[in-house]
Design a protein that fits this description.
Blueprint lengths: L1 H42 L1 H12 L6 H11 L72 E6 L7 E4 L5 E4 L3 E4 L5 H12 L8 E7 L4 E6 L5 E4 L6 H7 L12 E5 L2 E5 L1 H5 L15 E4 L1
Parallel strand pairs: 6-10
Antiparallel strand pairs: 1-2, 1-5, 3-4, 6-7, 8-9, 8-10
């Protein structure tokens, strides 16, 4: 009897233990199924829309739901323009290069042809210096004057020659020739005579390019004091005009012309009134006008 009761109690304990294990295993399976369902709901679009509705309070609908509703109602979705590649510009919107400028005055340039320089842009050739205007039969050549000598058909014998301080010039085939104290016509005849010994009837012309031997001076109360070339016969009044006239405090009644050891008085006030015209003398080389 005791053996049967112990066996019955052992069987009952085993059954209870087995049932407890079964319940715990079933609870684990249910918990795993719930977690799997939750994970699936988080990845589904419906869950996302539900969360959005919860955050917004159920007011505005997300774009996905609006698109779904528009599809259900039969509305066509808005078509987006196709994206263009940045490397391939659209020919309809590409900028058009400006047309090449046309030359209204000249011919059109072909492709690869270089434009010719404009005639106006070319530098002008150097012009020969002009000789001063002097009387070739009356002007007396002096030291430091610059002469232009031309021998017909002999360019090697022609050119510009300065008169040396001793009054002579150096010329090929003739050597040294006295020039100071002669007129240009007389000097030309002298050179032609020297060349006639080795040439047949040479033709020589002499002109004065620059006068440096004939000068007069103005100093004192004038606008432009200094040395002036005596190119043509010049009076005292003409020299004062070349000097720019008088300054404000110049003494116009007491003007002195110094010529070596001589002194000449001149009054511009008297000359303006028509008096003392004989005092308006012609200047000579080296004259000095003093305006105090």
């Amino acid at each position: 009897m005791k053996a049967n009761s112990s066996l019955f109690s052992q069987i009952t304990f085993n059954q209870v233990t087995l049932m407890a294990l079964s319940f715990s295993f079933a609870a684990c399976l249910l918990a795993g199924d719930e977690k799997a369902k939750e994970r699936g709901q988080e990845g589904a679009p419906g869950a996302a829309s539900a969360k959005v509705e919860e955050k917004t309070g159920g007011g505005a609908k997300p774009e996905t739901s609006q698109a779904a509703e528009s599809e259900k109602q039969g509305a066509k979705p808005v078509e987006q323009p196709p994206a263009t590649s940045p490397k391939e510009p659209n020919p309809d919107t590409a900028p058009v290069p400006p047309p090449a400028p046309k030359d209204a005055d000249g011919p059109k340039l072909q492709e690869g042809e270089l434009a010719k320089p404009d005639e106006a842009d070319k530098p002008e050739p150097a012009k020969p210096a002009k000789a001063v205007v002097v009387d070739p039969g009356a002007y007396i050549i002096g030291p430091e004057d610059i002469l232009v000598i031309r021998v017909w058909r002999e360019p090697e014998l022609s050119g510009q020659l300065p008169v040396r301080p001793d009054g002579k010039i150096s010329l090929q085939l003739v050597n040294e020739v006295q020039a100071a104290g002669l007129t240009p016509e007389q000097l030309g005849a002298t050179i032609a005579e020297g060349l006639g010994k080795i040439m047949t009837r040479p033709e020589v012309s002499v002109s004065v390019l620059q006068v440096n031997s004939k000068k007069y001076f103005i100093s004192g109360e004038v606008q432009r004091p200094g040395a002036y070339p005596l190119l043509i016969p010049t009076t005292v009044v003409e020299a004062l005009v070349n000097g720019g006239g008088f300054r404000d405090f110049a003494n116009q009644k007491d003007i002195v012309i110094v010529r070596g050891k001589e002194r000449f008085k001149f009054s511009y006030r008297d000359f303006a009134k028509g008096k003392g015209e004989d005092k308006n003398i012609l200047l000579q080389h080296g004259d000095h006008i003093l305006v105090r």
